[in-house]
Amino acid sequence: MANLTQQPSDHQVRKKALGQGSFIVQAPAGSGKTSLLVKRFLNRLLDVKSPKEVLALTFTNKAAAEMAQRLKEALEGKSKDNEIKKIVEKISKHALKNKWDEGYIDTLMVMTIDKLALRLIKQTPILSSSGVNFLTDEDPDDLYRETIRETITSNAENHLLFKYFDYDYHKLTEQLLALISKRDQWLPIVSGLLRSDDKNIEEIYGTYYTNELNIWVEEKIKPNFTNEDLKELEIIVSYSADNKNIDRKDKLRSSINYEFWFYIRDLILTKSGKQIRKKIDTSSGFPATNVGKEIKERLLKLIELKIHKFNILIDFFNVTHHKNIVDIYPLITPFCLLLIDMVTRLNEKFKERRIIDFTQIMGNAVEALRDTHLPLILDQNISHILVDEFQDTNESQLIFIELLTQNFAGNPEKSFFAVGDPMQSIYRFRKAEVEIFSRVQKNGISDLKLTSLFLKVNFRSNKNIIDWLNNSFSKAFPLIDDSDEGSVPYSSCESSNGNLEGGMELIALTCDTKSKTAQYEAEALYVLNLIKDTRKSNPDASIAVLTRSKAHLNELITLINKKDSSIPIDAIEMSKILSNQTFQDILCLTKALFDFSDRTNWIAALKSPWCGLSINDLVLLFEKDHKSLVWELINNIDNTSRLDKSSARRLRSFVEVISENIQYRGRISHRYFVEGIWRQLNGEKSMVDSNDIQNIDLFLELLEEASEILSIDFIKLERLIENKFISKTSIQKNSIKFLTIQKSKGLEFDHVIIPNLNKRTRNEESDLVLYDKSTLSIKNPGNNKNLHSYHAYKERKRLDNEKIRLLYVAMTRAKNKCYLIGTVKKEGDLVIPNSGTFMNILWPFFSDKFTEIATPEDENSFEKFIPKLRRLNDNFYSGDKRYKRSIDTEELSFCYPNMSTDIQRFTGNIVHKYLEIIVKKQLDIDKILRNKLDYTESLYLGKNFKKKDIKIGLNLVKKSLEMLKKTSDGRWILNRYLADNSEVSYLLESNNTTTQHIPDRSFIENDIQWIIDYKTPFSPIKNLAVEAKKHLPQLRLYETIFKGNKRVIQKAIYFAPQGKLIKL
Questions:
Q1: Are 1007 and 110 in contact (CB under 8 A)?
Q2: Of 9, 148, 366, 774, which sits 20 to 30 A from 356 (CA to CA)?
Q3: What is the distance between the alpha carbons of residues 185 and 653, in angstroms, rounded to a whole number?
Q4: Helix, strand or coil for residue 830?
Q5: 973 near 1054, Cβ under 8 Å?
Q6: Under DSSP, is residue 101 helix (H, G, I), strand (E, B) or coil?
Q7: What average pLDDT score do residues 359-363 get?
């Protein structure tokens, strides 16, 4: 934020927030929340004897790193803010007086809430039921699945339960998988239900639903109508009911009863419930008499006059009759028992394998805090707690925070401070509840009352943007704060930026095409031209393109690259790894090698560039025989003789490689087996891009993870692949940032472009179990109008409200200009945006002016498209060139392609490999030293090095391993950290040139991004610091990979034989 020459209008509120007391601060986008937190943190340092008494919590590593960096810069005197400078001067004196350590700045208590929970359970292994030695499993999917399979098997005799799910065990497994990671959200409800008998359960559900219906009637429907309206409707309903011979004592005759509104709803809505009927016929209780016609006209006239009021009944259509919620009553107890059984089995597996997931970390931390106070656990007093982005809190985290502050009430030396913006609550998929913010504003944290403060000034966006948000977009927000629907009203703000240039620009495009693909391509071309024009007129301006989903973003990037690949793009983890052709090729090869009956993947392998058979070749080989194995057919001389000479040579080379090496399948590691064949097939030379080697490395790592002793778990492999993405980064100055809206949170740009407004996202299937208040509902495959459907409706309403907030977050990233772009289809004079889209939300604010964009020239070129066959040149299969036709089994564990025979490099590679696998698998070093050195020596002997050199090399390997235990730096290197990666390749683009960079190791520790290169000097080095600096240029290149993360970056060289880490 720029320094302001005059105080903002909310200056007094900001000043109060820095003083004594406990506060919850509601602050709009761009209001300087992080700056306020930093100042609050610094002020609290003046109140404590130890800097560790002040604790700041965030919900993301990115936010924690940013705050830690801001505090560090402030305390090191680098801040330009005069107010902060004055505070820091006082802190310096305070630190000397209280004898704080010189390095206290690097040990400030700034961390994520999950990291604090992890620290607590590590320090209370008995209280938290975690044990002493355990690993955090960031991806426990396999353990979940194993637990679910066992649970289903052990409950298989419960036919009542599984009949309800149509005995679809696969689907049930996938749905339980979605549940198990959220178990902290539903376990309290399940436990409560299991404490009740069947009769009490029916009472709980009956009371819950009656209350829901009463809320609908009294709070949502009746307020739309006057008393006169209600009397008129009662007359109309009674007349209709009389003509349908309904008992006069029936509750539907009074508007105070929900039965009345069910009757009205069914009377005036179409069967789909999506709109109000245009006509009401005689079967609805209005006979073709004068009185019948007159009563019907009165109803139609009332509807016409108050059409918007009656629209509430369209929402009410999602509310089912009371009798329809009883279908799950017999299932509640058995299903709750199944869920408890599943959780019990999971906990047992955690203990057996000494691992834990993040859900369990929070649960165990809460358990520990209930048994003892925080200061006793941390062996230090915590006096002040600050929480950033408080609107992202979920119920489990709120309980955790309440326990952290359990002795704060009534103690003037302690304080709690939370800051956030309910209008930026966009993480419901993480179970963040926006209503928690409002609840804490009203009730405080446990018994600690908080003073509510409201900031008003936005320092980021210019006046035109803020005025449009206040005057126009505010109308898209709900009018009231409704916790049940996850809605919050709009809170207006004011701009401190008087710049009147720029602002909001709403662009409605139309394209004369019926093809959605062509429509999106035309819009992408429009966005591309807008980017070019903006860069031309503002070369130094930062530009971001934001969309709702990765799929939207990936498609947009692909279309833009298709038109102009020179645009410098930064897009982190946007496209799935499976979209990479080289990756697809080696995956198909692997599947073929491990299943000779897999006709599809064998044919794909033959089409791959290392063989490169054409479609015509494949037809000749397989058109007459659809039953025999592909392997049999390509080894049949009569069959292959139909190919021309070039294709025959290609096929013969492919068959020879497979024939020579198939004997090693199952005898050596699957990774080495596949890699060996791939290299012999000239896989490296047949890659689409030479830098695709990083994707091959990734595939081989995933293959190793999915490998079993004699086979490969291909289901697990596919699952691992599904979660891997490719990043596209550019080192060119001022590249265009392509981000999802969630990823853009906390960032700001001069120009923001939000395209694809009229594009829907993929519909997510509702969860198997939904829960609300004291009840849970189970999805019934045969009944879509029950309690689960009602719960699903409520969840959709919450998500619809979050969608409005998501759009608000996107627009408030803009400092000067924000473009809102969507393409609509015109059909005559009628233009209607797609439901469920951003365009639908914004439609009231668009003018009736449309910009016609041209249809892409190649829209109708599909018929003319001829796929290009990519394959190696014929020269690879001709002449006297000799190929290595079998795997070198002497290098089963260490395979270093294209490696020189230099013993220094060879030794370095062995040490690198040992460090990688020891850290990754947390292996026993003593065991390796006892059992593996003879094997390592055999590797040296196989290279025919001199004996004295081998002795030196072996000694360096041994010493490098020993130092991992003997030195503090070695022990630190041995640990696993957040986002810990070894030998991972990154591609950096600059001026249309892509370069590959492979840091030895990178990870995050204490919110610092570490980049470490390993070095194994063969000769003695007098000064390691001087030697380390020689490698600084390379580390600086690596640094560019991580700059977008906004973390503090620490570069270092680890000298393995010395066990010494040198920071750079």
A1: yes
A2: 774
A3: 58
A4: strand
A5: yes
A6: coil
A7: 88
